[in-house]
Structures are given as C-alpha cells and as structure tokens.
Design goal:
Blueprint lengths: L47 E8 L2 H9 L3 E9 L2 E9 H5 L7 E2 L31 E11 L2 E10 L7 E5 L2 E10 L2 E11 L6 E6 L4 E5 L1 E2 L24 H14 L4 E5 L10 E6 L7 E8 L8 E5 L9 E5 L2 E5 L12 H11 L4 E5 L12 E5 L18 E5 L9 E6 L8 H14 L5 H9 L1 E5 L4 H9 L64 H12 L3 E9 L3 E4 L4 E2 L4 E2 L5 H22 L8 E3 H4 L7 H9 L2 E7 L3 E3 L4 E3 L8 H27 L6 E7 L5 E7 L3 E6 L24 E3 L3 E9 L8 E5 L3
Parallel strand pairs: 5-12, 16-18, 22-23, 22-24, 24-29, 25-28
Antiparallel strand pairs: 1-3, 1-4, 2-3, 5-6, 6-9, 7-8, 7-10, 8-9, 10-11, 13-21, 14-15, 15-19, 16-20, 17-18, 21-23, 25-29, 26-27, 30-31, 32-33, 33-35, 34-36, 36-37
Length: about 775
C-alpha cells in the first residue's frame, strides 16, 4: 500500500522562560514586561505505515479496533486467525503481542496465495461408512484471469472442522481448509490454481468417510462491456481530486447537461473542515494545561496566544491579563519566588479572566495538582494546512440527479462514495459513471435507454471534511473531523489527529448500541460509531435521500481497497456469531445474479476478477461492521444495497502470485485503471435497474423431483428468476403467509425437501418486484 505523509504542523509544549529575577529584573505580576513574539512550534503526527498483520481471531480484531488499530479492507481468514492490512504507529506495533497479534511473516503466517495444484498432503483413512459424515457442496466456481485458471470451492461437513476435506478433480487434488470466524465453523473453502483444462466436475472426500460430487460452474462471463461498444467514451479523469474539485466537477456536469441533470442539495451541511485552535502546556500529566480557542482557527483562533509567565518576584498572586488576542498568565510564587500555581488553579484563572477568548482544562480528567512550568508566548493553532481556496465552513453535500424522467416514475439508483476519507479512488468511480452517461447520450443506444428508464442519484464524496484533511494534512484519515471527545477525555491537541466518526458505523440497524461488534465507543478509534445513531449530518443526508425518493430500489456505497462486493448481513454479535437477519433466498439469489453481471463488466477492462470468496454477506466475507449504511437501507426501505471494496488483487503470471491493488492511494497508473474498471460495474448497475423497471412478468416456478434408492423423493423448486416460493402440503391454498422455500444455511441453494409418502404440493411465487405467480400444484408420488 502506498500511503505517504505530508509534513504536519501542531502546537507542542513550549520550554520554560527564565525567571525575571534570574535576569536581574524586578516586576509586578500585574505589570508585565514586554512579551516576546508568540511562537508556533511543530508537533508531527505519529508516523504510520501499512503492514500485513496476523490477528488470532475476530475477538482480538475487535479489541484492537477499540484500542485504535486501523484495519483496511484487504482481509483474509485463515483456519487459526486473520491476515489483515493495518495502518499502525510504532507504539501500536510494540503493543501487538498484547493481543496475540504479529506482523505477518514474523512468528506469524505470511500472506497466502492460491493453493497450487498438487496432491493433497493429508493422508487420513476414511472411517466405516456407517460413521460417515454428510458432505454438502455449496459453490463450485471456475474463473480465469490473465491466462490462468482457478477453482473456488465451498463445502460443508456436518462434522464441522473435525472433518479433513480433500478436493479432487481430473488433474489435481488439494486440501480444503475450514473457515472459522469468531469461534464458529462456517464451512470449508479453497481457492486453487488449476494448470490444466477446466474440469467439468469435482469431488470432495472427507477423512470421516463422507463424499460428494458437483458440477463446476463458470464465475463471470463474457459480456458486451460498456467500454467495448463502438464510439463509447470513457476515462475522463486524469488525476486525484480533492472534494472541492470533485463537487466543482459535479456542478460543471450539470451546467453542461441541464436537460438531463439537476443538483440536489442535501439538507444537512457537514461540520466543516475546521477545528478550534489549541495548545498544551507542560509535560507531566498532573501539571499539564490544555487551552482551546473559543473561535474556530480560521475565524480568529489562530491569532490567539497564551503565555505562562513566572514573575520572578516573591509572594506574587496568580493573575491573568488579556491584551487583544494575547493572554498572559502571571503565575503565583511563594516567599522564595518559586512558582506555586497548579494546573487546576491556572485553568480556573484562565476560564474566569479570559473565558471569552479561550477555554482551559486539565489533562484528560487529571485533578491538576501539579505545579505548572512557565512557557513562552505560544500561538494556538488549528494545524490545518489546506490553502485558502478550501473552505473551512460547513460543506454543502450535493447529489447529481441524472435521467430524462426525474419524477419518481422510474426505478432509482443511489451511488455514494468516500464515506472513508482516505479512499481517494472511490469518488473518481462515481464521477466517471456520471461522465460516461452524459458524454455518451448521443452516441450510444444503451446509454440513451438508461437515461430514459432509470433515475440516478450520485453523491461522489460523502465525507468532504475528512477528504480535505486526507489531502492536505493526514493521508491515513478515515473518518470525518467532528470532535466528540469530552473535555475530560482526548479533546486536547495530542489527540486531534484521531478525532472523527466512522460514517459507515453511524446508522440504525445492527448498531454497536444494539450489541453488535465491529464499531467502537471510543472517540479516538477509527471505527468510532459516534455518540448516537445518525449523530452525523453525512449519515442523516443518506437517510433523507431514502426517505425522500421512494423510487430508490438499488444502492451502492463505494469503498477501497480489498476487492470485495457484498451485501447483508453486515454485522454480528461475536459471542455466538449472531448476525443481523439474512436476506431470504429470493434476495440472496438476486444479489448473486446482480453481482455476477456487475463483476463481469468490471472484468472487461484488464481481466480483473473479484473472486467468489470475496462476494456475499459482508460479515461472511469480510468482518462485522456494526451500524453500516447498507443494512439501514435494505431493512428499513427494501433497497437492494451493495457495498464495494474496489482495488482488489491482480494475478501476476510472471510471479505466479496475486499482487496487491495498491492500497487506498495507489500510484496514478493503477488508480487510473481502478476507477475505470469499477465505473463499468456501476454502469452495469444502471442496466440492472433498467431491466428491473421493464420486467412485467412474474416468475414461473417448476417443482423438481429426484427419486432416491431408498424409495423417498427429494423435492426442490426451480424459479425462472429470483422469487420467494410459498408452498403448502396439506391441500390448502398457498398465500404469502404460507411456509417459504429457503436455503438451509448460508451460501447454499434452496433446501431439499424429503418426501416419503405421496404428497401434493401447491405453491405461488413472488418475484423481486412483488409480482405474483398464479398458484400451481403437483403431486409427488412415492411408490
């Protein structure tokens, strides 16, 4: 990952001035000598770097998040833990052992590549058939990238991780490792390189005697990618853009295409790229004094100076004088001329005498009983480095609405990007999608059909304050800039690089307040959920869009940089791994169908494959993210809501390994390809929405029966499109309240119903648009 750091400025503790008496001078505390010019000294942010870490499990991961460790989306589960990239300081590195974590490769597993085709190393004799476990194969996906073939297989044993499973195909054999999360067995899975031709079938054998065979299916397919159409224009952006530039470009697109666009100003402005000016005096915690300006830094706070002056005379009283923006604290002394003012006394005096200009406090709730040290005149500073062209005021977030019919009569799609400030490629994905629609409306038939049939809203940067801070101050910034730390906590200058709310933990479903894991209550954690649900204006804006535009049916939030595409469930309670509700089989099937279409279009630019193991419920393929936006929109509004971690790995034929996607801020050559290929996926979402709107036919469902050797019949349902199937077996007429046909477990097809006596099934189905299939019936006869 290529995360670099700009020089940062901040206020540090000033050194004590020499006493006036030592200089041979005498003065009264209320009759100060001329002050020296105030200084603004430098305090760089702690150095951070991205490292691959081994973490022993989810419990340790969430404990580390609470402690301030900052994990990325580049994530891989192992049988005994997790490999994950993290942005860490030297202090955090030193604390890894306390969580049982380590840098990958240093007494910990290194990053894994796809398992090569090779004979399985494990040799365990199967037990007797009577004791055999049941093996159920879930997904068997074949894909190629850069000329190399791969198999991705998911399979379950009812013996859980006690079963040692082996995958065999014509030409190869590998072990399949168990996938365990938060102490819970989910399934076995493997991604293996195949050096021969595509196999037609695979067999999985268990050490406990179970076995199963399944057909291989193709993951992703050749498609008429948007960029392949004759005359199609794409690739409009030639460098990274800060949020001000992003929104200037959004406004320019509207001005150039007023007939098919409008600007929607969202009701809640951000809290602004702004901070109070601050300084912290002293070195020992009990004698430290923190001082904040009352005014924002750019509104005068940066002009305020504070001096802690030792008067150099005996028996002087504590006093504070204010001359314009200059505050001088005349410290009290004893009969020998030594300073006696404590931090608590100085704080009280400052607040009483200079309270209209500054607010003072002891260090992080300390009683402040220590004697303070004198300090030279020191300018308070907000330490923000952006040029004056970047407004410090609350930022007006806008959506670009695109379409010929922006009246709610067409299905709506909402795209948001850059919830997390450092993910600089993501706003370019959103902008590129808008640019393509507007540039190709006259020369591309599909684009014209999208504009005629879809109502599109694009919010290219949902965290402009954090985005500006990322560009000009700290490249590791994830959250917005709002300080919710109490004055008795980490509200001082030493912590202000760690303020802010993780906007994708600030929503209402599966929140940390409801007991779900993956968000923090610590105001300096990178997954801080905020003081309450929807505390942040940025989150309230997205909910406002869902409340206002009831035609919204599809949603994509664009993140980086792990190469995943996911949906619900997004959060779980780690103890027992209790997830938010899983989507019904209908919606799960629809998500998978949409995902394959979206990712097939992504593949068109440079053969990038988002692996099937990185697709699905985000709590299954990534980790728990309590209070995320996707679940709020899906569960509260019925919107099909995707999350996207762009910038996944690329297969390198020369090394035979997967290369990193470049991190949050990849070199431009890589970023240029990333925003273009993933914008193609967004364009495909618009085509999916168009197909949804034009679908006027309900699903048709057939009953499939397979006779078994023991005389029973296995029954499944096969709908022509994703649909909820409601059935009865007691002769009653089915309704939408009748039992629904579901998957028996995560990432599995529909259940198998075992019939041992002649039974009449009656059923109806309801597709994703709510269209109802006429009732059907079929009698399954058991001989």
């Amino acid at each position: 990952m290529n995360i670099t750091r700009r020089a940062a400025r901040a206020v540090i503790v000033a050194t004590a001035t020499a006493g006036l008496a030592a200089a041979g001078l005498s003065a009264q505390a209320n009759d100060p000598a001329p002050a020296a010019d105030p200084v603004r000294q430098e305090l760089p942010l702690p150095a951070e770097r991205v490292l691959r870490l081994y973490v022993p499990g989810s419990e340790a991961l969430y404990a580390m998040q609470d402690a301030g460790y900052d994990f990325t989306g580049d994530f891989q589960r192992l049988p005994d833990g997790i490999l994950v990239d993290a942005l860490v300081t030297e202090e955090q590195l030193a604390g890894l052992a306390g969580f049982g974590a380590a840098v990958a490769g240093e007494s910990a597993p290194a990053a894994l590549t796809a398992t090569p085709s090779a004979p399985a190393a494990r040799s365990v004799a199967p037990t007797a058939a009577a004791d055999a476990d049941t093996v159920v194969i879930g997904r068997v996906d074949w894909f190629t990238t850069k000329g190399q073939g791969f198999l991705s297989v998911e399979v379950k044993s009812d013996a859980l991780q006690e079963a040692a499973l082996t995958l065999d195909w014509d030409g190869g054999s590998v072990e399949i490792e168990p996938y365990i999360d938060s102490g819970e067995y989910l399934y076995h899975r493997v991604l293996t390189r195949v050096d021969g031709p595509r196999p037609d079938t695979i067999t999985v054998t268990s050490s406990l005697g179970g076995t199963a065979t399944a057909e291989v299916t193709d993951w992703l397919h050749a498609t008429d990618s948007d960029i392949d159409r004759p005359g199609y224009e794409y690739g409009f952006i030639d460098g990274y853009l800060n949020p001000t530039q992003v929104y200037e470009r959004l406004e320019a697109l509207h001005e150039a295409h007023p007939g098919v666009t409008e600007i929607v100003e969202l009701p809640n402005r951000t809290n602004g790229y702004r901070r109070l000016s601050q300084a912290l005096f002293g070195t020992a915690n009990d004698s430290r004094v923190g001082v904040d300006s009352r005014a924002w830094g750019h509104e005068g706070g940066n002009e305020v100076s504070v001096e802690l002056r030792a008067p150099g005379v005996a028996s002087s009283a504590l006093d504070v004088t204010v001359d314009g923006d200059a505050v001088t604290v005349h410290l009290a002394t004893d009969a020998a001329g030594a300073v006696t003012s404590t931090a608590a006394q100085v704080v009280a005096a400052l607040n009483a005498e200079a309270g209209s200009l500054v607010r003072a406090y002891t260090y992080r709730g300390n009683a402040g009983a220590g004697v303070v040290a004198a300090a030279a005149p020191t300018l308070l500073s907000d330490n923000l480095a952006a040029p004056p062209s970047i407004s410090r005021d609350p930022f007006p977030i806008r959506a670009l609405r695109i379409g010929n019919h922006r009246d709610g009569s067409r299905p709506g799609v909402l795209i948001i990007a850059q919830d997390h400030a450092r993910e600089r490629v993501t706003p370019l994905v959103a902008l590129e999608a808008a640019e393509r629609l507007l540039a190709n409306r006259d020369n591309d038939r599909t684009t014209r059909r999208i504009l005629e049939n879809v109502d599109i809203l694009i919010v290219p940067s949902n965290n402009p304050d954090g985005g500006h801070y990322n560009f000009f101050d700290r490249t590791g910034q994830r959250r917005n800039m709002t300080n919710h730390c109490p004055i008795t906590g980490s509200a001082d200058v030493l912590a202000r690089g760690n303020w802010g709310v993780d906007l994708n933990r600030n929503y209402r479903v599966g929140s940390a307040l409801d007991g779900y894991d993956g968000a923090s209550f610590s105001c300096t954690s990178d997954t801080y959920m905020g003081p309450d649900k929807l505390s942040e204006p940025e989150a309230r804006n997205i909910v406002w869009l869902a409340d206002t535009y009831d035609n919204l049916k599809f949603f994509m939030t664009v993140h980086s940089s792990g190469g995943q595409l996911f949906w619900q469930p997004g959060a779980y309670i780690a103890d027992g791994r209790i997830t938010t509700p899983r989507p019904p089989l209908r919606d799960e099937t629809y998500y998978w169908e949409m995902a394959e279409e979206i990712l097939s279009n992504v593949k068109g630019l440079r053969d990038t494959v988002v692996q099937p193991g990185n697709v699905g419920g985000s709590s299954d393929v990534l980790y728990s993210s309590a209070g995320n936006v996707r679940e709020d929109l899906y569960f509260n509004y019925g919107i099909y809501a995707f999350g996207w971690e762009i910038g996944g790995v690329q297969w390198n034929p020369e090394t035979g390994e997967f290369d990193s996607g470049g991190g949050f801020i990849p070199e431009w050559d890589e970023a240029n390809l990333q925003y273009q290929e993933y914008a193609s996926g967004v364009i495909e979402m618009f085509e999916i929405a168009m197909a949804y709107g034009q679908d006027q036919r309900p699903a048709t469902t057939r009953l499939v029966q397979e006779r078994q050797a023991d005389g029973t019949v296995h029954v499944t349902f096969d709908p022509s499109e994703p649909a909820s199937i409601h059935y009865t077996t007691d002769g009653s007429t089915p309704t939408t309240d009748s039992p629904v046909y579901e998957a028996p477990a995560m990432r599995e097809p529909g259940e198998v119903i075992e019939v041992s006596a002649t039974t009449t099934f009656r059923w109806i189905s309801v597709d994703v648009k709510g269209q109802l299939e006429n009732a059907k019936r079929f009698t399954v006869r058991v001989r």
